Amino acid sequence: MNLPSLTAAALAAALVAAASVLAFSHLPALFVWAAFIGWASYDHSGATKQAALRSSSALAFGCIMAWLVAVIVAARWSSANATLLIAAIAGIASFLIVIASCVPLLRVVPAAFYGFASTFAYLSLSPGAFTVDALTSLSLRNAILSVPVSLLIGTGLGIVHTLLASAFTGHGGLVRVSLSNAHAADWSKP
Prior knowledge:
With about 190 residues, this protein is mainly α. It has 8 helices and no strands. The C terminus is likely disordered.
């Protein structure tokens, strides 16, 4: 095929998204919504090998930070009001996420916050997930396992999307076709 980059990116996205929804429907312990966040993080980070590594590292780091906050709150290691405790510890975690960006693999700060937010979304919306038992289990019920795995699958989806879109443009080899770049390339024409 020899499609314009935006059309190639759109067709590749449609195919990858449809396949993802079908696949995740058979994996109830993993989350297609988190995979789409991981995919988006990879794409907006530049859709390159370096973007995959940095985005994935930061996503996982954000999940770890959120899990630590959740464990502290769920264990009630403080007699403080739970909302105040979450606010204080989330503030400390946010500070650490930004400070950690001096480490090259953790420079994609938005991805770290995506991981953090995705973990808390799961914990807030899944009955029984925000308990010490769930947070320390060696199962996909534990947010520290299910959320990062879902996000990292999303990075893989982003890589597949890039490869497929590249194939649809008719270029030999890997061509960087992030959705942002495809949009800019096609819509900047008069």
